[in-house]
Amino acid sequence: MDECRMRAVELVKNLSLADATRCDHRVVFLAEELKACGLILNAVLLEMRATALVANTKKVASHQILQYQSNMSVIEPSLQGKLVLITGCTGGIGQATARAFARHGCSIAVHHSSQKSKAKADVLVSELMSLAPGVRAAPFEADLSSYENARTLHAHVVKGLGHPDILFSNHGVTGPVIGPEGDIGKVSAEVFEEIWRTNTGTAYLLAQLCVPYMESKKWGRIIFTSSVAAGNGGILGPQYASSKSALHGLVHWLSLRYSKDGITANAIAPALIEDTAMMSNPSDAVRSKIPIGRLGKPDEIASIVLLLATNGYMTNKVIVADGGWTIGGF
Ligand SMILES: NC(=O)c1ccc[n+]([C@@H]2O[C@H](COP(=O)([O-])OP(=O)(O)OC[C@H]3O[C@@H](n4cnc5c(N)ncnc54)[C@H](OP(=O)(O)O)[C@@H]3O)[C@@H](O)[C@H]2O)c1
């Protein structure tokens, strides 16, 4: 009996978490054996210890799961169900980004500039809705050289799909291409102002219209498409370069003002992206500027935009994606 008791004490003491978690035949068998030896108390202790061990493991595990989930929601919040307004959505970068967001379950307000691109917008809308369950998409036309059109665009999107959680302000026009050696006299102040209004002014207005809802939700993303031209002058003209660099000041102000409200503001500054109307046929001289030895792909810009949408700690940044053309950081 003593030997049996000593064995029972050892069993209770040494019951491992693995044994308890398995809660298998071995624990049941040991408890039965103890009872058979008249060691009822030890049998009960054994069962209690098994239950306590398992319960504690479950508690620790569920705590760890909760902690993991909350960490992940900070690092990579689910974009499922978010509404993204993408301006210039019919262009190369816009389309690639719309597909990337839709694959993550986002709904997309597909902006295009005119009737000429309506068919393209309609085809994209059908494709986006097939990419993931629950994705909604609709086309919205607006020539964004006008503030009034920008207001109407925002109102139509809100009415048709709801308030955007993410604004990807990506539309852009070049104006006259005079190149880095061009004559400044060829770009009138009126043209300069028109390009600025289209690339910067309406981008600002859309951000202004989207912010109140984002602020109310304590979550929002504002992402502008700038250009490497904002940092190095580029290959198009002064109107284009300065309209893009103006977006950087906007990124800085928005970030400082609204990051505490869960709204991040960033810009992506690409260079020489193929499959876009803007860079349809670059010369060899232009291509030779790219150390990587090729033009960028719209998907390579889309992946950065997705990063800026998912990451809640990255704000106030201009991410340069230019195949190594510049040394970056401006
Ligand atoms: N491609 C490059 O190498 C490159 C380099 C640096 C920066 N970017 C910037 O990337 C952004 C996206 O351009 P992308 O490369 O995808 O070129 P893209 O294929 O030429 O697309 C341009 C987009 O802007 C829209 N757009 C043109 N005029 C507009 C207007 N008046 N109002 C509103 N929207 C207008 C176009 O709409 P429609 O299709 O309806 O005309 C189209 O969706 C632009 O901001 C551009 O400045 C491009």
TrEMBL record:
A GO molecular-function descriptor: 3-oxoacyl-[acyl-carrier-protein] reductase (NADPH) activity
Q: What SUPFAM superfamilies is this protein classified in?
A: NAD(P)-binding Rossmann-fold domains
Give the record's GO biological process terms.
Answer: monocarboxylic acid metabolic process
Q: Name one Pfam family in it.
A: adh_short_C2
Instruction: Name the keywords, alphabetized.
Output: NADP, Oxidoreductase
The protein's matches in InterPro entries, at most eight in alphabetical order, are given as:
NAD(P)-bd_dom_sf, Sc_DH/Rdtase_CS, SDR, SDR_fam
PROSITE patterns tied to this protein: ADH_SHORT
Q: Which residues form the signal peptide?
A: none
* Catalytic EC class: oxidoreductase
Give EC number(s), comma-separated.
Answer: 1.1.1.100
Reactions catalysed according to its record: a (3R)-hydroxyacyl-[ACP] + NADP(+) = a 3-oxoacyl-[ACP] + NADPH + H(+)
What is the similarity comment for this entry? Belongs to the short-chain dehydrogenases/reductases (SDR) family.
Q: What is this protein called?
A: 3-oxoacyl-[acyl-carrier-protein] reductase
Q: Which gene encodes it?
A: fabG_3
